[in-house]
Amino acid sequence: MKFVDEYRDPRLAHVLADRIHRTATRPWRVMEICGGQTHTLIRSGIDTLLEEAVTLIHGPGCPVCVTPLEKIDRALAIARRPGVIFATFGDMMRVPGSEGDLLQAKARGADVRVLYSPLDALRLAERHPDREVVFFAVGFETTWPGRRGSATSACSSRTSGCRRRSG
Fold first, then answer.
1. Are 74 and 40 contained in the same domain?
2. Beta bridge partners of 29
3. What is the pTM of this model?
4. Coil, helix or strand at residue 29
5. What per-residue confidence (pLDDT) applies to 90?
6. Overall number of domains in the chain
7. Per-residue pLDDT tens over the stretch 48-71
8. Which of 58, 78, 98 is the last residue of a domain?
9. At 112, which CATH number?
10. Which among 30, 32, 145, 152 is most buried, taking Cβ atoms within 10 Å?
11. Can you give the residue range of the structural domain that contains 13?
12. What is the secondary structure of 95-150 as a DSSP string?
């Protein structure tokens, strides 16, 4: 597949690592902030390919990667409830809990949906007034104003049963 297989080519990885070693005039320190990046760098051995030229510093992780296991487990329990439409952004679908992830819950029959905007959750609730729509929002602080505005819109609309829970 174009632009995917190229990133899995070991020969190309070695060529690029050699180029980095030749180009680096001093040791570099690079922080990756996403747990997915960290896992990929270590799993593929890039950290050892670059170790003389680049020191990788494992950062704090993005909010998705560092979401506590207990929150994921609670999300999974809610998603499995009858009558619930569980909505979230796509990056949460494969975050593992104790007993699987949201993608697996969906495969087992839970009504889990990927949304692209918090306002999509409001529209979903308006289209399904007979169901409880739960929007599971995890993200950087820069995404909070949009989610807060959507929650305010939901609570001021005719959508019944509006509740907001954080934490």
1. no
2. 55
3. 0.63
4. strand
5. 87
6. 2
7. 888 888 998 887 777 777 788 899
8. 58
9. 3.40.50.11740
10. 32
11. 5-58
12. --BTTB-HHHHHHTT-EEEE-SSHHHHHHHHHH-TTSEEEEE----GGGHHHHHHH
